[in-house]
């Protein structure tokens, strides 16, 4: 077949907003999703029953960019069904089970190679989110610490620990507490963050506040740092989290902490940006010191950012990157080549808004 105007990699909110816009503008397109469902990234990372909030980034328009993807505080399962129906109404087909792993440039076209085949297109939108969980950075971390909440009922009857200071951790704390309260289980949910303050959006805070008022047994541990993973005398893998550390004399420290079986711990400390994936696809990245001019702390490599122009186009003309894949920041290059670090919020709103913007740019390029 002829080349598609655009191949969209990932059927999250960013990729789907792009597909809806492409359909509206009459572009030919293909949506490639590695999972078994649309919104697989959301299905994999949200706790069951979590409400999906229509959070608007600071300073953005109050009008949600893509009405078909606008959440209405409904549980995630209802949200996924709603979006599925909306896509069907637009007659948009998503190719599932297509893991894109290579991009080949041929003159003015690209081949997107997936686990199932290869697709020729004039432009590519990389909307693959981010899916590599960050390390806890403790000795003996092992694979025993969970990264997501599949089934809150598995935690009933045991005190549980959620590590992380953001929205995702807060959602899990609320979901666990709700499940324990419903089961009349008195065991606590400990919520630990290495800093003194949690960073959550107002909708998430409201949900959590409601859970506490309803009797949720949530215990907050500020400045609590995961210290060590170890196996106890009974062969149970445990995680020690430090909550108090004082120097007494001669370099001796008194250390107080709590130790949890790792199977009762969920570490929700975010995902790593997909720098490695961008690099594998041959796209240009830049280290933070090159943007800010500040040297990274000795021994540390500065974070790497994808370089994008004002239309979210990468250094390869015709390849665009959007959504969570470019959050929390990317290196923006303006028309005269100046670089800046651009913050980018990791929200459905932002991903959808990016998808629309990029497809409009592709349609404009095609029509000139
Ligand atoms: C726990 C949690 C709660 C959140 N709650 C909210 C909320 O209430 N409201 C809100 O606005 N935002 C929320 N967010 C953020 C929001 O979910 C993301 O900003 C949004 O999903 C980003 O959309 P995206 O399309 O960029 O990426 P994703 O949603 O991650 O979608 C990327 C898709 O690409 C697919 N993919 C990955 N690699 C490949 C590949 N190689 N080939 C083909 N397909 C691939 C993935 O399977 C996935 O389906 C939350 C995030 C988390 C983790």
Write structural notes for this entry.
With 368 residues, the protein is an alpha/beta fold. The chain has helices spanning 13-24, 40-45, 76-89, 167-182, 202-213, 275-280, 288-292, 348-367; strands at 4-9, 29-32, 94-95, 100-106, 109-114, 118-126, 132-133, 160-163, 189-192, 218-221, 225-231, 237-249, 252-261, 265-267, 271-272, 285-287, 304-308, 319-321, 329-333, 339-343. The strands form five sheets. Strands 1, 2, 3, 4, 5, 6 and 18 form a seven-stranded mixed β-sheet that branches. It has a four-stranded parallel β-sheet with strand order 10-9-8-14, covered by helices on one side. Strands 16-17-19-20 form a four-stranded mixed β-sheet. The protein is globular. The model has no long low-confidence stretch (mean pLDDT 91). The protein binds flavin-adenine dinucleotide (FAD). Flavin-adenine dinucleotide is lined by residues 9-15, 32-35, 40-42, 45-46, 52-53, 55, 71, 98-100, 127-129, 131, 167-168, 171, 323-325, 346-349, 351.
């Amino acid at each position: 077949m002829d080349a598609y105007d655009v191949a969209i990699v990932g059927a999250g909110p960013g990729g789907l907003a792009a597909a809806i816009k492409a359909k509206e503008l009459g572009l030919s397109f293909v949506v490639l999703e590695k999972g078994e469902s649309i919104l697989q990234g959301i299905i994999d990372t949200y706790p069951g029953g979590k409400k999906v909030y229509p959070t608007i980034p600071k300073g953005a328009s109050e009008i949600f960019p893509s009405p078909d993807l606008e959440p209405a505080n409904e549980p995630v399962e209802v949200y996924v069904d709603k979006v599925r129906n909306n896509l069907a109404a637009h007659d948009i087909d998503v190719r599932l089970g297509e893991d894109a792993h290579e991009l080949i440039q041929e003159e003015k076209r690209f081949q997107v190679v997936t686990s199932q085949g290869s697709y020729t297109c004039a432009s590519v939108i990389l909307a693959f989110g981010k899916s590599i969980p960050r390390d806890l950075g403790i000795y003996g971390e092992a694979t025993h610490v969970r990264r997501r909440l599949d089934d809150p009922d598995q935690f009933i009857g045991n005190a549980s620990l959620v590590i992380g200071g953001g929205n995702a951790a807060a959602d899990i704390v609320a979901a666990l507490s709700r499940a324990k309260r419903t089961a009349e289980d008195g065991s606590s949910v400990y919520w630990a963050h290495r800093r003194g303050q949690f960073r959550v959006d107002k909708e998430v805070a409201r949900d959590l506040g409601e859970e506490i008022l309803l009797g949720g047994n949530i215990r907050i541990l500020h400045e609590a740092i995961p210290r060590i993973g170890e196996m106890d005398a009974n062969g149970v893998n445990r995680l020690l989290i430090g909550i108090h550390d004082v120097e007494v004399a001669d370099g001796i420290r008194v250390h107080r902490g709590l130790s949890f079986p790792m199977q009762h711990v969920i570490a929700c400390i975010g995902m790593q940006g997909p720098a490695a994936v961008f690099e594998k696809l041959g796209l240009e990245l830049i280290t933070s010191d090159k943007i800010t001019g500040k040297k990274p702390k000795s021994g540390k490599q500065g974070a790497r950012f994808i370089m994008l122009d004002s239309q979210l186009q990468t250094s390869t003309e015709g390849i665009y990157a959007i959504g969570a894949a470019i959050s929390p920041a990317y290196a923006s290059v303006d028309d005269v080549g100046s670089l800046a670090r651009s913050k980018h919020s990791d929200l459905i709103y932002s991903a959808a808004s990016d998808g629309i913007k990029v497809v409009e740019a592709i349609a404009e390029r095609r029509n000139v």
